[in-house]
Amino acid sequence: MNNQSYEQVEMRIPAKAEYVGLVRLSMSGILNRQGFSYDDIEDVKIALSEALTNAVKHAYSNQEDGQISVGFVMFEDKIEIIVSDSGKSFDYEQKKRELGPYSEEENINFLREGGLGLFLIETLMDDVKVHKDQGVTISMSKYLMAKEVQQHDQDQGNGQLQKR
Fold this sequence. Notes:
This protein is an alpha+beta fold. It has one domain (about 5-145): Heat Shock Protein 90. About 40% of the residues lie in helices and about 25% in strands. It contains five helices and five strands. The model is unreliable at about 105-115 and about 160-164 (pLDDT under 50).
């Protein structure tokens, strides 16, 4: 991490579908407090739900009582969300290669099953990293666009929109 100041909230939940809503609700409150727009909160809600659902469905077999850790790291200009489990891992890059790119021309009724959650996460978030040591950790970031608009207004004289 850089020297930028931040605050952090951590949660640990059972790897069960009924706890996904609890994490989503907490995330909505955190992003609202940080000043994210309604649309950005909805995008992050979908991405977080996909990451949690993947962990619930794929990380642990039905016999295991697994845990999912969720961290929210709030910087001045972005939020970083870390979802990790210690269950079964997978090769993210290989999965993307196997699925191939999605096309706007594809009929929604015939989209390939599997991997759509990863596609949604990458589409909705500004930065996504997947680590697969001892389980899977997904780190995803969303920049606070209001800060960029304010910066643009301040820099209007030189016509530059600068991302902080």
